[in-house]
Amino acid sequence: MVHEVVAEVWRGEFLESVHHGTVVALGADGRAVLSVGRPELVAFPRSSNKPVQGLAMVRHGLDLDGELLALACASHSGEDFHVEGVRRILAKAGLGFDALQCTPDLPIGEAALAAHLKAGRGRAPEYMNCSGKHAAMLLTCVRNGWSTDDYLAFEHPLQVAIRATLEELAGERVGAVGVDGCGAPLFGISLNGLARAFGRMAGARAGTEEHRVAAAMNAHPEHVGGTGRDVTALMRALPGAMAKDGAEGVYAIGLPDGSAVALKIADGSSRARAVVMVAALRALGVDVGSLTTLATVPVLGHGREVGAVRPALALAG
């Protein structure tokens, strides 16, 4: 089977549903400590690839650090500080929001969306969760004298550099290509390769460009995700960790010792994603005591907790 049961949905004492998926956890030596499903098969990493995209841009002159570099690797919630950060990145390139070619969208954070709609604002590219990445792409193009009107083309020097960086870190060739939700090129690799890439970045020595990206994300997790986001909580709880969520149930994390986890929930939902991630980290020997709020997801009945989404036995090791 390509996928196995990785999470169970319990309503009281009744097993109501299950989530299938694929999970791989690599130790610091690169060997699989946990392997569920077929992690050697190609999948689209979706936004989990953003740290690698950020690294490719840093290697080609992206002069960002701190919260702005974290925002370049983000799927942000569209909160005011996110949008202000996007404006600051674009200003470095001498550009405005109108240069962004990502899809016009609304904030995805509940509070941010409510405030946005109350103010009578509509969809705009700067509120799209990928706008930090797109702003950084434009700044990288300006720094290199590359054209900005076609920066999303597969043959553009920026996208060629991103593909090469991904193949280098993953240790394998791209196995599929597509277009991501924001319009950027999407390169498919195996979950094994995604885990290798995250382990190599998070485990890189201080002073390297890989460490620069990973450290910025861990130091500014609220810029990578946002208020109330599990990816933000995950990096706050684990010093030195580099974590990134992605659409269609993808999640990856790299740890300072070079170990890593990559996973995909087969049905594409995000409900079980953090639950499975915490279980995989536990299998790696990581102390997940500070992640109890992510270890299960409540199942509600009339507004009160009547059950939970829990990891399946396959994740016990």
Write up what this structure looks like.
This protein has 317 residues and is of the alpha+beta class. The strands form 2 sheets. Strands 1, 2, 3, 7, 8, 9, 10 and 11 form an 8-stranded antiparallel beta sheet that branches. A 3-stranded antiparallel beta sheet has the order 4-6-5. A hairpin with a 5-residue loop joins strand 2 (14-26) and strand 3. The protein is built from 12 helices and 11 strands. The chain has one domain: 3-Layer(aba) Sandwich (Beta-lactamase).
Q: What's the mean pLDDT score?
A: 97
Computed over alpha carbons, the radius of gyration is: 19 Å
Counting structural domains, the number is 1
The CATH class is Alpha Beta
Please give the share of residues in helix. 25-40%
Report the order of strands and helices. Answer: EEEEHHHHHHEEHHHHEEEHHEE
Tags for this entry?
eight-stranded antiparallel sheet, three-stranded antiparallel sheet, 21% strand, Beta-lactamase, 317 residues, alpha+beta
Concise synopsis of the structure shown:
By secondary structure, this protein is of the alpha+beta class. It has helices at residues 50-59, 66-72, 80-92, 110-118, 131-144, 157-170, 191-202, 209-219, 221-224, 230-237, 273-283, 292-295; strands spanning 4-11, 14-26, 32-36, 42-43, 176-179, 185-190, 242-246, 250-254, 260-265, 297-301, 304-311.
